[in-house]
Fold each of these.
Amino acid sequence: MRKALALPAVAVAAAFPLLTMTAASAHEGTHSYQADLGAVNQSGVSGTGMVTLDGNTATVMIEASGLLAGSPHAQHFHIGAMGTCPTNDLADDADGDGFVSVTEAAKYYGAIGTSLTTTGDTSPDSGLAIDRFPTAEGGSISYERTFEVSDDVHAAFEAGTAVLVVHGIDKDGSGAYDGDVMSDLDPSLPMEATAPAACGALDAAQMGAAPAGGAETGAGSTAGTENTTAMGVGALAAVGAAAAGAVAYRRRQADQA
């Protein structure tokens, strides 16, 4: 009798660790984030950014339009602040020079965490590597790259404080980065070259919202979770079957007594 009752207990003990592992695996899998880019400095720029993180490996896709055609546009993940963007150009232009500068916007989106260059280094050290940022062809950029991010950047995504910022505006409509106001980051550059043009907080993406590349990565993670969950449910079903068998066995023993 004790042996018959012990069988379900063993099965239950085997099943529940599997379900515990399922929760841990879901947390550690690939996660997707999306930023809807809104204009800063009355730039008229709009677009979307998608990021998938698998550990510290990031795949980044950016589509943006309304940019200064034929010119490079610096772009970054900013971290370490409120995880938001400037919302009022007039109110945020503290020094009244006609621009919401990087320094003035930093209270919202923080410092550079990753430089979204086309080649080479992606650290904050490349924040002004103008020759390695995408050039807007016809006023648009289409960017995709996979690289490693730092632990601080990964943590900012998890905390909801990562922000995507695209820089470079043509405030005077001249068709080039120029003007008398110089950049707060590099006095040798005009402010137009470094002022934020578009900004969007990177929020966890809804299922199915990612472009094809991101969706495939996300689907792989989700599919793995579903399969593991199914295994856990199957194990519980086996527990039920084992329990039913034990009860039937006991009844047969009683009938024979």
Note: The first strand starts at residue 31 and ends at 39.
Amino acid sequence: MKLATKFLGISLKNPLVLASGVLGTTGSSLAAVAKSGAGAVTSKSVWLKRHDGHKNPTVLNLGNGNLINAVGLPHGGIEEARVEFANFRKLSNTPLLASIAASNLKEFVETAKAVATLKPDLIELNISCPNVESEFGRPFACSVSDSAKVTKAVKKSIGEIPLAVKLSPNVENIAAIAKSVEAAGADAIVAINTVGPGMVIDIETAQPILANKVGGLSGPAIRPIAVKAIFEIFRAVKIPIIGVGGVANGRDAIELLEAGATLVSVGSAAKNGLQIFGKIIRELEEFCQRKKIKNISQLIGLAHKK
């Protein structure tokens, strides 16, 4: 059976992608993920200038693969990205998706322009991180008009590089926001970012455990939320979807594909070892062989067919 696929003209050996923020800081770590079997890798969110993120503790393991984090998107800035992207290109020819972050519209445009000069295969516009609200206020992805405005401005600034917009599940109508960014020029949707913000309290000290007090929830617990979001977005737009949220095995990946995703990102599960990509690939192949599916694309949106 055929796992290889194309996404916005980008050739991938399989539909699995490393999600942004997980093992995506250095060129060598990205290359290691690619070597382990991922069809594409996404960088940690790039800022135009150095951004330190939040103080420790920033990540709490909730058990069963679930995490709550308030890392705060730390990054060394565009010069760091320039070095690490170049290092990655020396080590791998796997497609590289560049996530970008910023505090306001003007900075998003400037960052997108700078990252575009590094020639990634796609730019992922991260307008939906829930654990930087204390710094910058409500994310762009929480507003239909704000999402469209930043998408239009960034798309205009990056030339022919495809643009995928990462949306938040923490909204009333994610499909409406997906439609707005599609109309503004987005080439794809990434759904979803972490859920929250949430809080965990140490009952002995009666204080929040995370230094930032709140953070975004990821892991298997959010997968049903991701599935619903992908299902609704698929019905609302014509552009393709990169599905992300709680994928830890082949069955999870298949669920996101059947909901409407064309590619599936693996995030929190990758922290337990890079063998996760090979495991998911084997399970995808076994499922397709059992169901007599010849091409992985046959699974996309299958839940919408009666």
Note: Confidence is low (pLDDT under 50) at residues 133-137.
